[in-house]
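lol ok so funny story. i was supposed to be doing the assay writeup but got distracted and ended up predicting the structure for this chain instead. priorities right. anyway since i did it might as well share w the group, maybe its usefull for someone
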Amino acid sequence: MTNAVYQVDAFTARPFAGNPAGVVPLAAPADEGWMQQLAREMNLSETAFFWPADDGFRLRWFTPRHEVRLCGHATLAAAHVLWETERLPAERAAEFETLSGRLVCQRAGGESIEMDFPAIPGRTVREPHGLTEALGARPAEVRTAGEDLLVVFYDVEQVRRLEPDFRALELIEARGVCATAPSAHARECDFVSRFFAPRFGIPEDPVTGSSHCALAVYWAERLGKREMTGYQVSARGGKVGVRLAGDRVALAGEAVTVFAGELTAAAAP
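and the output, tada:
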């Protein structure tokens, strides 16, 4: 396929779960406006575009509205496509140059892929005006998380029951809002989360790799553990393995291709 497009479900081992990402392999850089238009056409939380560069690949991510600086599930999906289509040998690491620096993905046994991402520390802040009303519940703590807010609740059911007012949430000064709580079943996972980013055209993201860069830091300190499992309790759901190592965090998950297609000549870059 000369203008191939893939849809990959990330952070899941089965189709129609996890977080779907568009993946568009390119031979060379494409026009930014075209990438944004195709991401809008795909209408997924993120679409990844990559092309060969230096010793690896250049990687960019677009939501239906904006380019983003960091995206976990679409990076996982891009690495999966590289190996599945044999664009990259199975024994080679997938190395991507991105707006968040160099990100490296490796096969981690079985079908699991491990990604080396930056850890995102945070601090407790005063709750922004209107946040409780937008979420429909008052959090126990609000923290910074890079461009996002990390909103901590007491238990899983509070997070599950959230029914945000997305118009109100769009007024909160943050890329997205990540709600989290400790797990009620430690054998299954250590913490749960949900992620809302209506400002970027994503009312609720099914499974958010990048938010786990901050979740790993917070829960490692709170639980006294460096290796944990997070579960995003969205309607689709997805599991993310995290391992904190200094200022980096390893994110692990599986991916499955749902379909592959080809752009027509009229739509090609």
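The longest helix spans residues 72-84. The chain is about 20% helix and 40% strand.
back to the writeup now i swear
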